[in-house]
Amino acid sequence: MNKFARSLIGAAFLTLAVGAAGPSFAETRAWVEELSHTIAGVAGDLVSAQWEKKERGGRARLDYTQNARNKTLVAPYSVRASGGAPVSVPIAWDELSKALPSDHFTVMNVPARLKRLRHDPWEAYGRSARRVTAEMGQRLNSPLKI
């Protein structure tokens, strides 16, 4: 699956994978939760699936709970209601670094960034949808029936 990153606010970056029609919402949500716990098990020094900040010990949160019917996402290039007018921008994986704060992009510097970019970091987004398959569940040793 192709994955796409986007800046948010605070200390957050969002990763999206585009799903195609296939498994039910409940099956897909359960698979994403299982995947998050598997990633946390493999890269536990970097990420955690724990909800409570104090339980994560400074690690990034894999927030599988965002995959819910009542959750909304801010659209790309939305200005956030926060000091400095940060903008939620699509970002290429090679642009990410520990030195890049998620609120770096603002209404003041996004126009210049767009001029510098050779291509849209999300140009493949619309054609990247993939189905969650039974094989993906098997790779996780998941009991999910997808």
Structural overview:
The longest helix has 18 residues, at 25-42. The chain is of the alpha+beta class. It has helices spanning 25-42, 53-56, 110-116, 134-139, and strands spanning 3-7, 13-17, 47-48, 60-61, 78-79, 87-88, 90-91. The strands form three sheets. The protein has a three-stranded antiparallel beta sheet, with no helix packed on it. A two-stranded parallel sheet has the order 3-4. The relative contact order is 0.23. The protein is globular. The protein has four helices and seven strands. It has a single domain (3-139), classed as DNA primase, PRIM domain, CATH 3.90.920.10. It is 24% helix and 14% strand.
Strand content: 5-15%
User: What is the helix tally?
Assistant: 4
Q: Summarize the biggest pleated sheet.
A: 3 strands, antiparallel
CATH topology: DNA primase, PRIM domain
Tell me what the CATH architecture is. Answer: Alpha-Beta Complex
Strand order of the largest sheet: 2-1-7
Derived structural class: alpha+beta
**Gross geometry:** globular
* Structure summary, number of beta strands: 7
Output mean pLDDT. Answer: 78
Through-space gap between termini = 16 Å
The stretches of 5 or more residues where confidence is low (pLDDT under 50) are: none
- Gyration radius, to the nearest Å? 17 Å
Share in helix: 10-25%
Specify the CATH class: Alpha Beta
Supply the CATH superfamily name. DNA primase, PRIM domain
